[in-house]
Amino acid sequence: MKSSVSARFNAELLEQQYDRWCEEPQSVDADWAAFFEGFELGVAQLKKRGEAQANGANGVATTANEAASVPVSTTPAPAAHTANQSPISVDELDEEFLNFRGKVVGLVYAYRALGHTQAHLNPLDQAGQENPDLLLAEHGLYEEDLERLISTRFFRNNERMTLRELYVELNEIYCGFVGFEFMHIHNSEVRNWLRLRIENRPEEQEQLSLDKAAVLKWLLEAQMFEAFLAKKFLGEKRFSLEGGESAIVVLNTILQHCPAHEVQEIEMGMAHRGRLNVLRNFLHKSLTTLLYEFTPNYEPDLVAGDGDVKYHLGYEGVRKLDDGEVRVSLAANPSHLEAVNAVVEGKARARQRIIGDDGTHTDRKKVLPVLLHGDAAFAGQGSVAEVLNLSQLPGYRTGGTIHLIVNNQIGFTTMPEDARSSHYATDVAKMIEAPVIHVNGEELTELVWAAVTAIEFRQKFGRDIVIDMYCYRRQGHNEADQAAFTQPHTYKKINARKPVGDLYKDRLVADGDLSQEQADAVQQAIADKLDEGYERMVKHMDAGDRTIFTGSTAEPQPKFSHDPVPTGISEERLQHIGKSLTTIPDGFNLHPTLAKRFIPRRKEALSSGSNFDWAFAESLAWGSLLMEGTPVRLSGQDVRRGTFSHRHCVFYDSETRERYFPLKHLSEDQERFCVYNSLLSEAAVLGFDYGYSLGCPEMLIMWEGQFGDFANGAQVIIDQFISSAESKWQTPSSFVMLLPHGYEGMGPEHSSARLERFLQLCAEKNIQVANLTTPAQYFHALRRQKVREVRKPLILMTPKSLLSRPEAVSSVDDFTEGSCFQEILPDVVEFEKPNKVDRIVFCSGKVFYDLVQYRKDHDITNTAIIRVEQLYPLNTEMLQLLASQYPKVKHWVWAQEEPWNMGARSFMTPRLQGLFDITLKYAGRKSSSSPAAGSKAMHIREQKKLLEQAFNI
Known about the structure:
disordered N terminus; seven-stranded mixed beta sheet; oxoglutarate dehydrogenase (succinyl-transferring) activity; 4 domains; oxoglutarate dehydrogenase (succinyl-transferring); thiamine pyrophosphate; Rossmann fold; alpha/beta; globular
C-alpha cells in the first residue's frame, strides 16, 4: 500500500504492534487497530467497494434507524466524493477507507472513555449535559457518513451496521441513565470483561430476573418507614434516607444474589445517614425495638458502659432467602465519617480466616465487605484513600469491596463545586483502578443491573467496585435543619418531586406490570406492619414490660482484677523456642551482621540464662502463645525488621531475598504467625487491625507505630473505637498498640507517644496503659492479654534506647513458671534501714534507669524508687503496700521525662496525693508546647536538671 498511514511505520514497529494486536486487540491505539483491521478485511473487499463507486454506486444502505436524529455538528463537512466525480483509485480508496475506519474506532473509544460525561445521572436535572468531544464532527465524521456501512471487531464483534446505527447504540449504552468509568483499568482481562458486560447490557437486562413487585416493596418500605417515624416522633433526629431510598434496592439485590455467588456473610459499614432505614429494612432489626429507641423512656440494655445514640448502633442478623441464608453484620460507627471503613475490612478478613476463606486473594469469596458512603465524605476524607490502598496488599486484602455511594450531591450545606477539586466524588477510587458505575437513583432497572454486575465482578476478580447512585437529600442535614437557607433552588426542585417509591409505583401501573389495586395492596401491607409494630411497642410500655426490648448480643466480661495472672512458661519450652529462633536453615545466606552478632547474642542468653533483651522477650512471648494454640498477628510500618533494627522476626537471604520466619517453625501443631509490613498509613492500618481483633478475639493482634507519635494520624480510631467501643457498643477487644516512646535528645518529633492523651481517655476500666522497664515485663504483658479471660485493649509505651541498654535485660527466671506481670515494681535496692528512707520517687518507663544511675553516682541512700509499670488501671493497693515499707517518708516526688503539661503527671498527681494524703512534688521538664527540645545539648541539660530535682526538690 502507498497510504500515508503505512508510510510512517517502520517495519520493526509495525511487526511489534501487529503481534500485540493479534494477541489482544484492545492493547493497541485506535489508529493501529484500524490499520490492522483494514488488512483483515482483505484487498478483495476493498477492490469491490472501489468498483462499486467507479460504477456510480454510492455505498449507502437504508436502515431502520435512517430517520434517527443524530447530532453531528454545525461545522461544514469537507468536500466528499460523489457519483458525478471521477472514480477514485483503489490505492486512494484503501487509504480513505482505513482513515474512515480509524475515525469510527476512535469514536467508539471516545464513548467508552467519555460517554459518562453526558449520561442522564441527576434525577433533578433530566436534561443532562452535552460533551462536544462526542460530536461526530470532532472525530472527522459528518452527515454524509451516517449511512456508510462499517464493521469492527471493537464493537459488536464485527457486526455490520451503518454509522448512524452505531452512533445511536453508543448513545444508548454509554449516555443513558448509567455512566461507566472503566477505561482507566490497565488489566485488559478486567477491562474487556466490563466492556462486554456494558455493551451487552440491553440483552442482559432483558434476561435479568427483575421482580418488579419486590423492588416496589423494598422502595415503599424504605419510603414509608421514614414517613412513619416523622409522623410518630416529630422533631426527632433520624438522619433519614429520604431521596436515596433506592439504596435499599441495591443492598437487597446484592443480598439476593449472594447464595448463587458463594457469599455466606456480608460485613457492612456506613455512616449515620440512612442507618435506621438500613437496620430495619435490610438487616431486619426488630421494628418494635427500633421504635422504642425513639421514646423518652428508652434505656439501652447494656452489660457495661453508657451506650450510644440509635443511629450509631450496629446490628447482626441472618437473612433467610429462598436459596440459602446470609449472615449480615453492620458495624457500629461514630459520626466521624468514613472512619469505620478500615474496621469493617479488618472484621471481614477476620471472618474469612474463621470460616476458612483466607487463601489467595481470589479465594476470599464467602465474606463480602459492603461499604456505604456519602459523596462529600468519599471525596473529602483521607481515610477513604488509605483504605482503598489496602485492597490488594497481602496482609490486608479481603477479596474486594462493593462501595455504594449514596450521592446526595451535597455535604452538610456545601455543594460539590465547593467540596472537591475532582469532577466526580468517586475519582479517588481510580487510584486502585476500581471500575465506577454512575447510576441515576430513580432508574431501578439500571440500579439492579449495577448491583448484580458489582457482585459478579467482585467474585470474579477479587477487586473493589464502586456504584455511584445519584439521588438527593429530601430533608436537611437533620430533620430540624432548613436546607433551603443555603440551597433554595435545589430544594424547590426536591419539594416538587414525588418520592422515588411513588414514581416507580406509577410507572409499574402505567406500564401494566401491576394493577393499581395490586400496588395499593403492597402499600397498605407495609402501613399495617408499621402500625402493628408501634401498637405493640406502646402496649408493652404501658404494661411496664421491657423484656420485649431486651436481647442484646453483648457478652458480659469478667470483672477486671489486679490479681496476678500466671504467665510464666517452663524453662524447657523457653529453650525450645529459643533454639528455633536461633536456628537457620542449611544453605540460607543470613546477613553477616545478623549471623555474627544477632544470633550469637541470643544463643549466649539461652546458654547463660541472662541478658534476654526486649526483642528476644517479645519473640519468646509470641512463640509460647503460638505453641499454646493462640495465633499471633503483628502489622505496621516496617515491623518485620523493626524501626530500630531490633526485631528481625523475618530473615532475608542476602543473595536471593528468600524469606524465613523462625516463628513458623516451632512445632507441627502450632498456630499461625502473621507479620506484615503495612502501607505508610496509620488510620487505615490501625483501624483494620482493631477490626480484626473484633472478628477474631482468640488471636493476639498488635499494631506498632514506627514511632509512638505516628499514632497522631489515627486519633479518630483511638478515640472513637479503641478507647470507647466497649462503653458505647458493648464490643470488647484485647487489641495491643505498641508505641515507641522515650526522650533520647532526637528532637520534638518521635520522642513522645503522647502518653497523656491515652491517660485522658481512661475510665471505667476501658483500656490498659503501661510504660514498661524490662523485657520480662513485656513478655508477661503480652501473654496476659490472651491467658486471662477479661478483654481490654493494651496501650504500651515501648522503648527505643532500652532495646539495647545493657541494664534493660532479664534473666531466665523472670520468664519461667511462677513469674507474672507486675503492675508496680519495687525498688531494685533492698534497704537495710527502711526507716532512713525519707523520699520516694515514683516514675514510669525509661527514666527509671537514669534515676538509678544518678542515685548510684551520687551515693544517695535515703531515696526509694518505685516504678509504675501499669498506669491504668492503677493498682493502688500495691502502691500502698510498697510505700508502707518506708514509714518516715517526707518527700514524695513524681519524676518524668515529658514536660509538665504532658506525660503521666496530671494523671498520677491527684491519685497519689489522694492515696497518701500528701503534696506530690514534680521533677521534670517545664511546660512546653512542643514535646521535646530540638538540640541534643538542651536535652542533656534538661535531663540533668530533672534528675537533680528528683533527689533534691
